[in-house]
Amino acid sequence: MQTHKLPGKFKRKPLSLALISLGTALYFSSPVHAQTEEIIQEEVVISGTRIRARDGMSTPTPVTTIGKENLDAMAPGSLMDGLGQLPQFYSNETVNSNQSRGIWYERGSFGSLNLRGLGINRTLTLMNGRRVISSSAFGGVDVNNFPEAMVKTVETVTGGASAAYGTDAVAGVVNFILDTKFEGFEAKLQAGETDRSDGGNSEISVAFGTDIGDKAHIQFSYEIASQDAIQTYAGRDWYQSWGTVPNADGLLEVHPYVVSASSTYNGLIFAPGTPLQGMQFSRDGQSISPYILSSVATPSPVGVPPSRHSILNGGSGDDFNSQNANLMPEFDRDAFFVYADYAFSENFTAYVQALRASNETWQYNQPGGSFHGTPTTLTIFQDNAYLPDSVRQTMIDNDIDSFTFRRMGSMSDILGESYLATESELQSITAGFNLDIDNGAFEGWTLSGYYQSGENERQLKQHGLRVDRIFAAIDAVDNGSGEIVCRTSLFDPNAFPGCEPINLFGQGNASAAAVDYVTGFEAGEQINTPLYFADSGFDLGRNYSYTTSREKINIATINQDVFEISASGEISEGFGAGPIDLAVGYSNRKEEIFQVAQDVTNPASNHGSPGGFTPVSCNDDDIGLRGVNPPDCANTVGVQYSKISNIDGEITVDELFVETQIPLLSEVAGAESLSTNIAARWADYSGSGDVWAWKGGLDWQINSQFRARSTLSRDVRAANLSERFDQTGGSASIFDPVQSAEYNVTIYSGGNPEVAPEEADTFTAGVVFQPDAIEGLSMSLDWYEVEIDGAIGSLTPQGVVNACQAGDASACARITRDAGTNNIILVGDQFVNIDQEVASGIDLEVSYSTDVEWFGGGDEYFSIRSFISHLRERSETSGDAPTIDRAGQTGIESSTFQAYALPDYKFTTQLNYQYGNFDVFLQGRYISSGTNENSPGAGFEMVDSSVDTAFYTDLNLSYSREVGGANWQVFANIANLLDEDPPVSAAYDVFLARTAQANTTLFDVLGRRFTLGIRVKM
Fold it and tell me: Which partner from 224, 241, 569, 872 sits 20 to 30 angstroms from 719, CA to CA?
């Protein structure tokens, strides 16, 4: 049996000691004053527009600007860690955000931003105002790939922005502004870990820039970072396996120490009506004993997937999170960036930049070998050679030919050999120019253009259970000579060549050869196969050749080519209030995806229905195969929970845009200035046709203290690559309100070529107050509402069932019931145009900065900045179904096992104090109380659905000195200073047979952690 050794790019302890030693040396060196840059910025006027900004120009679009120094103080680990603490973002995709069933395959990346909780697909993420290639078919730009050392500021446009910035900006735009005039040398070295002595991490970055003569400039940066996995709850006593158990009235109650009563690590017998029913095996697999239910248990019999109970006061069972918590996957990333420009004249500059970045993750697969009935179960026959004699005798005495064996893979067998890994590599090159026109009819105009080509290759690797082999391996018999063999080898040795009998009674009793046989592939085989695509079958005639590895690998290659040209300048002197400016432009974008699965068990990935290839052999007397689980016999993959389809798709879009800024009043009573901003964009999407986006806004500077602003816009988004082309299938556990029963069904989900573009109407209104009486104080208050019609989304299988029950005819059309039993046998969860989604709320930002003399002089400075967001509504309406408002939902929904991160209130407050070379940054983050369920379906109503508040405190200390002509800074950061425990957001997943106590998308589950580092600038 192979054991995965977690790699680390650096040795953590020696690095930490080196940092401490160097920091001590710097502290006792001669004091030389080095003024640090201001961390807290007052409100700044940035463009938020395609029009070239002029002095005094403002736009009505709400914008938040964060400097790189501020982000470093908030969270020194990565850009995502810092930005995720701003309340405008909800449900960002991060390395350790909740990985519910299927999310590992479906997530966009490990660093995608989500404004307003409207989805990563509706948040347009730009770098220097230009698009960046998506990291997967599901959309979402991976911020982890950005050159952190070169980031100067991050601008977040939270109003409607499709007309100005491009389609897809329904929720807004996040623009990472790079410092393309970087000069000198800068390096950073840091390391950290949690106070549980786990989760070690480190980062090294270097940046260099210089002018070459009077005309050229070049700069580059490189960074590499590593994060160790956290696979255990050790030292985190807040974890008590909180979950839900239905009471006598069918309402879900929250209890600690909830465990499955359908299977165990050692194995559980399901044989209703016999003396073996509900018996569990011992760890050594040599004896059985009754499985004891506590007084807090489901009415379902022991051995049925929904059954679970709380063992707070005794009872049998295993917590399937206990052997592998997956709190933090192993994560490694690196990025190399280079930029160069050349001024051919005073008016014309050309530039080129290149970015190459990669990231890798690794974690144990959970469940790693599931035999508890979702859908896989095992059958043990009377003549099984590993069966304890006492159990065999009971079977003989009671005429029991076989029983159902339910079990979860453990770390000493299948789970220990099951893992998930990703490897993603992005390459992008951009060439562009800027021309200032200094004569003729367009004097004063700027003409800009660029071409960008990028590719992102993402590999998803899965080393897991081979359901095409397990049924032959578990049926182990004596061959008559005292040797235990696979029963099929006695009938046809070629049916399962190399079959190794496996002993799964207890834990750690299976041979290494047997575990190896039922997990993973044989490396080095040459495969040549035609490819099946969900939308066209074999019609494309494409073939694929590769050499196998141990894992099943899904390779998705996305290519993006973007060309854009734009011009901006003055078109009129206006009406006396100022000149009228105009910006116009054209862009063409092409996105292609080719995704293929390297799957030995189904080489063509033929998941078509009907007629899909089924790699799991059914019962066959001729080869001695018996006990095959019927749902697995009908499955189209041989690796458990691994169904991914091949995709071959392309999207092209042409866009024309125009924007104008028109001053209306200037220096009159009641209006120092009044201007309007109007923009329109036409886009023609292949497959979707043309669509318009527009925006109108007013910016009113009432006087030196008050400013009012408002926008009304139409924002649009067309379906992405996954929403169009990615179709797949699988199974899910649903509660059927018609039958009042919970059971497993087959599902089909994903791409829908007929999905139409979605349109959003966005309204914002706000005020900015900068009182003359309090210098340094600035406040802004903005109200927003985004109403999306024809929103693209999926409901989840349970959501489809719930919507049908509520009267949605379109949902009912995607459900197939068995004509005899009336049970649901098939649920379609494809992307559709959900009728409406609404997000509305209020943003408040307050900042104050001033020089102080608290400690008797010197350079003393104090500032405070607070961001407060109130989410008033985040609703979804589908067909005739009732509207679901998820505002305030901060837990894990039991009906779907989906983690929501939509609190009613969030605030982040930052205090900064500087005294000479010393800097203290203190941050508080508040998340209001919420709920687990905002729309419980039948069978999922909770007695108490509440989730508590959370408050996190972060501290950053830094000290800077001039040494040897360079500025050296030592910094220390403590995240979650008070070691706040995550609130309980209890749920129980019948499919995975485990609880989910904490919502890792929203709450901190790692605890207090320390980072120590050094920066040097010269």
Answer: 872
